[in-house]
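Mods, move this if it's the wrong board.
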Amino acid sequence: MATKSVVKNEKQLVTESGVFYKISKHSWSAVSSKVRGNELPDDAPKRVLSGKKNLIDRDYVSKLWNAQSQAENVCDRFGYRYKDFGKVWFIPKALISTVDKKVDECVDKFYVILTDFINNYGTYKEEWKKISGRYYDEALYPSQADLESRFYLASRKFIIDLPSKESGVLNDEQYKIELEKQKNEMKEFIDSTLTSLASNFFEIVKGIEDQITQGKTVNKKRIENLKIFAENFDAMNITNHKEMKIIVDKCFKIIEKVDPDDLKAGDKGVETIRKEISTKMTEIIETMKESKDQRIKRAIIF
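Not the wrong board. Structure tokens:
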């Protein structure tokens, strides 16, 4: 009975805390088959033949790849990767609208770039034909009409669940086995969210401490990232981990009123502030190291 209760609670924690978010994408590689080093002619332009045969200036197509990566970066920033499911993230409930907005912006940007790429495809090929010389092969290129189907970017939300027991898709023994797998998978995932959260926090705090102790100017981006992390912490803390919240709140109170200009290196007027912040960041790190929760300890890089 106790095991069934735990399974239900773990499943509820996931399903009631957010949704799974998938980024679907594909794109034209803009290369042909691999070319072995001993098969490369001496006069082969390296931009054209270098391991693989490039079919177009990669600066043009990389804009599309970057837009796809930006959509994934949004999910990395506001969610947790779900292992073994490809480009799938768990997005906490309070951040779903934020992720939707930012991913939609990436998708819109992607298709604007794609339209421009398709409209200029003929010109790009002619440019590359001049660079490629005798290595140019028209047969390797998709037609302009086919090109659009080579690129895609979209997102969708879903939940992970077993077929209902009543459906008959799984027999009793199979259902029992898969239910146990689901329990273990959900527990592992829930534990990983805390470790990931603690790891991201530790990386920012340690970075601030290191830059001060090494006599460097603290990167303003680190301070900004710490403030953003603290602002999003409650939404990302799906396990409602009280110890981690106390640590983050304490750190935020230290840093929230700090002017990044006060953390510049070489300014004697701010050395007292720099030492004070460094000492407090060290205290935060030591608190994490002393935690009895192994999920937090696993996040620390000694």
